[in-house]
């Protein structure tokens, strides 16, 4: 039952964050960029449930918009990087030999390249933005997914039904599409869920450094940076975005764990 | 001094905050440890415009012919006295006999001539062309006397000579001053660890050594305001400037510290690139001036600690005239003007200083109300110098001009990053620098302020305050700095 608990808790946390983010696209309690410096750092009230930030902007509204930014960047980056990585992994597995060797060494190489440094380079070349942050995070994900996909695919390629397909004269591309992908989907989905948690942290770190979301866009990492000098006078300014990051990362982590346990046939059997 | 004003800013910030002290746990009263936010690029103020070099070394390690006091009055330093000819063109300086460079080479008129000619030379990287531009010739009469002839009267000449850019260096060590500075000052160089600290010790051979009671000074480079505050609280620093006013709160009720909110020469402006559309059109500049609300900016960005300015002159100066009402805050008029000129989008490129990044977000919101979408980009200092200051590739930026007497910036021609040129103002500035009568000069400076405000050349925001925290048993620091530097000779520990 343990895995089911983490699955449920993870799904609830992720669902809450995603819902808050989705709602913020259509509606927030206050306009996001509306400043009111005479009312800055206000305590929670009926009008501002979590109070206001250093420029008098509604904190709850900005946290909600931060959820939209963080989740969309993280999920988008993992989908993009994961998609490319999976494609490369499948290619390597289907062709084998030198192609496989070359692609996997390329992955090793990109693992050696610090992700933050790459993001800073992107920001220097194209200007800091959420899009460039997303691209940098996607880049980190390519080799991760290439490895997972190739490892899983290699196990499927030697199964009897694949050999039968090849004997029947089907091409490698067709076999990859019709037989390999469905059989490696589960580990990839689990991997993606866990990588989203990492991507949320990465986005927060980059925005904290000023390389991600630019004003007046809201981002949890940016809010943390802004709260830094206010720790003495208004500690909650840092606590709220910190809690959001924690909850989102924890949520995706638990969800990933739960999915993995659920998808693992051995565990299912044992518990049955 | 104008050339580098922008650079000063960071320094200023840091400087503002300069040194602070903590009397935490019955602290030792030894070397004074001062927090500095801007790492110096080199240690020679005569070749580089970075403000922190001047802040730390001018009149401390190096000396100039003259110096100024906290009131901004010119006093003798390496020149004991001087005479000015009746036409105001020839200055005859009598030099002190009691000075020597830290490496033992003697200080004499030859060193002064060398220093001046080095700064004036073709290809010199001295940051202040306007100090040297009026000088026609430098003649050594005898080892104690030097005669400087100007091509035109210059009311600021003696004041300018007190700046770090006019520091006197020794021919023997001029080339190595960038890493191992040698001067004649009351403190001498011990060590410089990049990214960490610069250490100076008392020079026991200095002519005023008897007045210096501290054994030395240590500047620690800490770029982050929160880290600076933490270092103060931990007893790692004796004094520091804090760029973020909200950090002061935790020190205000703490007996171990004194909080000083002083003034600087730093005018913070929202610079509008006059050299290209849309700000080559006064209607666009007026629209920005009407769209912004200084009170809101000061409350939000500076926690209410700054004084608004309506032109380019510090409120504590003798010629100041309050022009903050020139363009009353009026979002509707601003919106109409923006529409007339066809402005819907602008970029705002800001350097990474708290006063700039915070003001930027408020200005972004204010311009949004007037119908203009502003994209704010916070960039590194080096990038700012390159793209904004050198290449003039920007619409708007926010910067503090921390040099004294810097209204001449607006007479620097269209190649300066303002992209501004006006024959009328150039003529006015020529009259200001040539006018030697203080009262008449102040009247002209007032005219200059009006011209800049009425032509909405920039959006003038506020005067940068000096927000310093120091140990309460540390004394002798200036509250109002009329120049970039802070003489440390007078700094001492209380009982």
UniProtKB/TrEMBL annotation, chain A:
<keyword id="KW-1003">Cell membrane</keyword>
<keyword id="KW-0472">Membrane</keyword>
<feature type="domain" description="ABC transmembrane type-1">
    <location>
        <begin position="67"/>
        <end position="256"/>
    </location>
</feature>
<feature type="transmembrane region" description="Helical">
    <location>
        <begin position="71"/>
        <end position="94"/>
    </location>
</feature>
<dbReference type="GO" id="GO:0055085">
    <property type="term" value="P:transmembrane transport"/>
</dbReference>
<dbReference type="InterPro" id="IPR035906">
    <property type="entry name" value="MetI-like_sf"/>
</dbReference>
<feature type="transmembrane region" description="Helical">
    <location>
        <begin position="130"/>
        <end position="149"/>
    </location>
</feature>
<keyword id="KW-1133">Transmembrane helix</keyword>
<dbReference type="InterPro" id="IPR050366">
    <property type="entry name" value="BP-dependent_transpt_permease"/>
</dbReference>
<protein>
    <submittedName>
        <fullName>Peptide/nickel transport system permease protein</fullName>
    </submittedName>
</protein>
<keyword id="KW-0813">Transport</keyword>
<feature type="transmembrane region" description="Helical">
    <location>
        <begin position="230"/>
        <end position="255"/>
    </location>
</feature>
<keyword id="KW-0812">Transmembrane</keyword>
<dbReference type="GO" id="GO:0005886">
    <property type="term" value="C:plasma membrane"/>
</dbReference>
<feature type="transmembrane region" description="Helical">
    <location>
        <begin position="106"/>
        <end position="124"/>
    </location>
</feature>
<comment type="similarity">
    <text>Belongs to the binding-protein-dependent transport system permease family.</text>
</comment>
<dbReference type="Pfam" id="PF00528">
    <property type="entry name" value="BPD_transp_1"/>
</dbReference>
<dbReference type="InterPro" id="IPR000515">
    <property type="entry name" value="MetI-like"/>
</dbReference>
UniProtKB/TrEMBL annotation, chain B:
<dbReference type="Pfam" id="PF00496">
    <property type="entry name" value="SBP_bac_5"/>
</dbReference>
<keyword id="KW-0732">Signal</keyword>
<feature type="signal peptide">
    <location>
        <begin position="1"/>
        <end position="26"/>
    </location>
</feature>
<dbReference type="InterPro" id="IPR000914">
    <property type="entry name" value="SBP_5_dom"/>
</dbReference>
<dbReference type="GO" id="GO:0043190">
    <property type="term" value="C:ATP-binding cassette (ABC) transporter complex"/>
</dbReference>
<comment type="similarity">
    <text>Belongs to the bacterial solute-binding protein 5 family.</text>
</comment>
<dbReference type="GO" id="GO:0015833">
    <property type="term" value="P:peptide transport"/>
</dbReference>
<protein>
    <submittedName>
        <fullName>Peptide/nickel transport system substrate-binding protein</fullName>
    </submittedName>
</protein>
<dbReference type="InterPro" id="IPR039424">
    <property type="entry name" value="SBP_5"/>
</dbReference>
<dbReference type="GO" id="GO:1904680">
    <property type="term" value="F:peptide transmembrane transporter activity"/>
</dbReference>
<dbReference type="GO" id="GO:0030288">
    <property type="term" value="C:outer membrane-bounded periplasmic space"/>
</dbReference>
<feature type="domain" description="Solute-binding protein family 5">
    <location>
        <begin position="73"/>
        <end position="403"/>
    </location>
</feature>
<dbReference type="InterPro" id="IPR030678">
    <property type="entry name" value="Peptide/Ni-bd"/>
</dbReference>
